[in-house]
Amino acid sequence: MNPRLQAANSAAAAASGGAHVRLDEVAFGYGETEFFFDADFAAGEITAVLGPSGSGKSTLLNLVAGFEAPRSGHVLIGGEDVTAAPPSARPVSMVFQENNLFAHLTVAENVGLGRSPALKLGYEDRAAVAEALSRTGLAGKERRLPRELSGGERQRVALARVLVRDRPVLLLDEPFASLGPALRDDMLELVDGVHAERRMTVLFVTHQPHDARRLAHRVVFLEDGRVAAAGTAADFFAGAGPAAFRRYIGADGGGSRDVARKPT
């Protein structure tokens, strides 16, 4: 990897606050499905990525994370072109719906992977793990296995792992979709609190307008593999979003329901 890019990424990861993310005329496709993204995500803000199933929400996050490579265009994070950089070299953390925990590792070990994939943890690493577990309400559950946790607790472990990585960009790919309303609200409150402390840039994929309205500063709405509209969450939910967005959230006049018409 380019040493200059690696140094920039390391500096960005160590710095407080988020990094600006840009998808500069990024084209991607598989089979007959084509995507084209040209979008900016402001540093330190939470942006909800909304759109019908198949519109490209997860694909957009995967392009930012480096799990997919664009056919053309550029991915920039913090002003640096990371298009050719592997996921491990990008200043990004990601939480998936499945939470990606290792069943044979304890809670503390799963979180510790965020500091060292080989789990070779020094004093500072172990202290960071303990702090993250405390911050996410998991203190006292360090030695439990994932199967001994509730769904909400497993997602808290995934979020704690993000905290010990301390990257300036956080990608959330419907991480709370399988949780009930009360647990989902708890997790939204936790993410909001962590963001208030860390000020990282958050891209948050969701099918739930309620979640976007509660958490997001901005909205990017996708349709047919493209960015159909972008703006402040306040404007979108006040009726200034495009007609496709209003149909998607089931808006009637100036109001909207709390769930999308289309199922996940």
What's the Cα radius of gyration? Answer: 18 Å
Please provide the count of β strands.
10
| Helical run tally | 9
The CATH C-level name of the largest domain is Alpha Beta
Please name the CATH topology of the largest domain. Rossmann fold
Sheet-strand content, in percent, reads 15-25%
N-to-C order of helices and strands: HEEEHEEEHHHEHEHEEHH
Topology of this protein?
Blueprint: H1 3-14, E1 21-30, E2 33-41, E3 46-50, H2 57-65, E4 72-77, E5 80-81, E6 92-96, H3 107-112, H4 123-135, H5 151-165, E7 169-173, H6 181-198, E8 201-205, H7 209-215, E9 218-223, E10 226-232, H8 233-240, H9 243-248
Parallel strand pairs: 3-8, 3-9, 6-7, 7-8
Antiparallel strand pairs: 1-2, 1-4, 4-5, 9-10
Task: For the structure shown, list the relevant keywords.
264 residues, alpha/beta, Rossmann fold, six-stranded mixed beta sheet, four-stranded antiparallel beta sheet, 36% helix, disordered N terminus
Q: Would you give an account of this structure?
A:
The strands form two sheets. This protein has a six-stranded mixed sheet, sandwiched between helices. A four-stranded antiparallel sheet has the order 2-1-4-5. The chain has helices at 3-14, 57-65, 107-112, 123-135, 151-165, 181-198, 209-215, 233-240, 243-248; strands at residues 21-30, 33-41, 46-50, 72-77, 80-81, 92-96, 169-173, 201-205, 218-223, 226-232. Mean pLDDT is 85; it is low at 1-15 and 253-264. Helices cover 36% and strands 23% of the residues. It is built from nine helices and ten strands. The protein is an alpha/beta fold and 264 residues long. It folds into two domains: 3-91 and 168-247, 3-Layer(aba) Sandwich (Rossmann fold); 105-166, no CATH class. A hairpin with a 2-residue loop joins strand 9 and strand 10. Helix 4 packs across helix 5 and helix 5 (151-165) packs parallel to helix 6 (181-198).
